[in-house]
Amino acid sequence: MSHLVMRRPDLRDLAPVPPMPAGYVLRPYAGEADLAGLAETLAAAFAEAWPEERVRRSLTEAADVDAVFVVAVEGRPVATASSNHRPGQFPGAGVVHWVGTHPAHRGRGLGSALVARVLQHFVALGDGHAALETDDERLPAIRSYLRHGFLPVYDPNGEDHRDRWSAVVRAAFGG
Fold first, then answer.
1. Domain named N-acetyltransferase: which ranges (predicted)?
2. Domain limits at 121?
3. Which residues, in sequence order, are CB contacts of 140 under 8 Å at separation 6+?
């Protein structure tokens, strides 16, 4: 099944990055020193294999990824988000990419802070709007994206996602 798509139509009036809880630091990816922690975080966040080689290939060394941010505790990443650009798919947009928080650290606003940071990164790059792809079952993430001003795209690539979005909204907000 294809991903759901969301867009933020403009990047004006962004909320500031919220303060981190005590002991947490939001910062750019620090290279090899963060690699193992980033791999562990992604594997736990997405319940799938994320060996270090996949982290390199999909994130830290990927040609279309221009920034990787982490939230760290005692220097070890526990949450992450990255940004990329896919002009063929999302012209003029920065793409919020691989937002994930280790389950032991969820519920503290880390993912939301990372999304805010990535959006600020897009502004610094001169992007006019933002996009992202997500999955139907990622309801907490979708609620967060909506709070950040992202809106559902009902017909990405000519596909009709109205029924899927209706089901997601019912599941996320009741009804």
1. 24-175
2. 12-136
3. 106, 111
Provide the number of structural domains found in the chain. 1
CB 99 within 8 A of CB 114: yes
What's the pTM? 0.95
Q: How far apart are CA 110 and CA 8, in angstroms?
A: 20
In a domain, 164, yes or no: no
Determine how many CB atoms are found less than 10 A away from the CB of residue 172: 16
Domain of 65: which CATH number?
3.40.630.30
Instruction: Answer yes or no: is 167 within a domain.
Output: no
Name 126's bridge partners: none
Residues 29-87: tens digit of each pLDDT: 999 999 999 999 999 999 999 999 999 999 999 999 999 999 999 999 999 999 999 99
